[in-house]
Amino acid sequence: MEKIKQAGVHKEILNFFRGKKLLFAHWDAEDPQVGYSYDNWYRPMKKIFGKVVTFPTKKIYFGLGKEEMNKRFLELVKREKPDYAFFLLIYDEFDPSTFLKLKEISPKTKIFNLLSDDSWRYEDYGRYWALLSDYIVTTGHRTIKLHKKEGIKNIFFASVVNLEHFKPLNLEKKYDVVFIGTSGKERIESIKFLIKNGIKVDIFGKNWHYDEFKDIYHGPLDSDELIKKINQSRINLSISVGGDTKPQIKGRPFEVSACKSFVLESYFPDYLDFFEKDKEIVMFKDNAELLEKVKYYLKHEKEREKIAEAAYKKVVKKYSVDAMLNEFLGKVVENEKKKILIKFPQAEVKEKIAYLSGNDLKQGMNELKQKLENFDYVCFNADTTAKVHPLRNFIQAYSLKKSGKQISCCDYYVHSKQIGNYMLFKANLSFIKLPKSKFDRLLGISQIMSRKDFFLQNISHFRKFLENRGFNLITEKNTVFISIPLVEIKKMPDTANAIDYKYMKEAFQMLFLNRLYSLSRQKKLFSGYLLMLVIEALKGKSFIFNALKDAVYDKNKMNRLKKGF
């Protein structure tokens, strides 16, 4: 059999980083049951850097809350003064200001940021975090050009497979079809369809505590067991698309291929930038085609193994973690030797922003035009109880400047003095999933920034917005969304009162549930927080009671609560 030469990390890189310290702040940090970060990043970095300090973001976030997590992170930075801090962000766990404070506390620390969902979160998420990072690694290979166009120079594609870990083990094939991963709507439906049609499926991973899967669900796997199961499977099912997210490149096809095993992947054309269709990767477009191909490749062993062999050769030659790190860390070494300093954040906005109050909006057109004569963008402080983030104006103005759109709309927190930020409105996701009439009712004027000319042309709509009569101007064509909460509001829009709970739970992340999970883990569930939450619910927020009921009856959440996040 042909021996495939694997790339190793260059000696120059190993020598340079041997005396350096890395602060590893991925969401799952060093959790071996969540393979991506642990196998493909933590393990290689441990071999390269002289010291790796881990900060288990998820564990602390669910255990102590976002505010305390950010505080403890900065305290760790102050103690350790790492040469580099490496992040993998999920949603709102890190405040953007924390990145700036990191630089104040430890100016020499360079920020690495892995944008793992950049292929579908570039415009509303990755674009802004890139400005607050020294180096970007992205799984969205097609977004690299977009980042570079906006002045982000140090950006690299994360074609990551740790070949020291993911490798052929020459084990007997014990399973016909295996799915390894978390549950999701499309995944559940596809597996149900296979079972209904007589296909034996075995499930490993998290959040599969459903009665219909009790006989085929075998729980989560640690890192080493995951490799064994991949090697022991005739068909490794990978369903990378669907649900709440847009299509994106996932690591599983690369990992399975590195084990010289066969992967059957849900159709996403971007994979064809890496693998040759039907020769190195096989994909399916719907459940009928999935069933057809499962039956075919279970019967045609030699053809299945030929495809797995070809994919294995491709991954080893082109997509190993070592090959990627040689490019990424090689550039870091080059910049360090040249003592290149990166401006932080990596952009500036020269456009002028006007702040309009409720009284300003009531003025006549001529008065408004005169007031706005020397301004480019308009934002609103009509809600005097709202608290805006220090970076709100910069990020929203930047979004308008770069997107060319008319409106910028950010996420917001709902805040209570007694219980803090207990709700998070996810604007972009809500726009996608909710009926337009429902979405419009959940908007607050403080989360909006507009180009001046657009505002003046639609002044009547903005006045209605001020009067709590909803806002119907937002469209996909004219609005850029920012999936970062840049505003805290103390009172939900009055128009939200008539929204059914089924829409509320789609639109909001119920942060109070995270807090309750945390208190339960600390055996402090029946504390003042729960009482304050009930009082808040009695003020007309019945969705709180509904969310609590859902949580109690959600087997997956209860299981996570027992075992810890």
Give a concise summary.
By secondary structure, the protein is an alpha/beta fold. The protein contains 25 helices and 19 strands.
Distance between the termini: 44 Å
**CATH class annotation of the largest domain:** Alpha Beta
Globular, elongated, flat, extended or rod-shaped: what is the shape? globular
Task: Kindly report the average pLDDT value.
Answer: 90
Rg result: 25 Å
- The secondary-structure class comes to alpha/beta
Instruction: Fill in the CATH topology of the largest domain.
Output: Rossmann fold
Task: Give the percentage of residues in beta strands.
Answer: 15-25%
Q: Which residues form runs of ≥5 with pLDDT under 50?
A: none
Number of strands: 19
The name of the CATH architecture of the largest domain is: 3-Layer(aba) Sandwich
Q: Sheet with the most strands?
A: 8 strands, mixed
The helix content, as a percent range, equals 40-55%
The tally of structural domains comes to 3
CATH superfamily of the largest domain: Response regulator
Q: How many DSSP helices?
A: 25
Could you explain the architecture of this structure?
The chain is α/β, with parallel strands linked by helices and 565 residues long. The chain has three domains: 11-162 and 321-338, Rossmann fold (3-Layer(aba) Sandwich); 175-316, Glycogen Phosphorylase B (Rossmann fold, 3-Layer(aba) Sandwich); 353-509, no CATH class. The protein is built from 25 helices and 19 strands. The strands form three sheets. Strands 12, 13, 14, 15, 16, 17, 18 and 19 form an eight-stranded mixed β-sheet that branches. A six-stranded parallel β-sheet has the order 2-1-3-4-5-6. A five-stranded parallel β-sheet has the order 8-7-9-10-11, with helices on both faces. The model has no long low-confidence stretch (mean pLDDT 90).
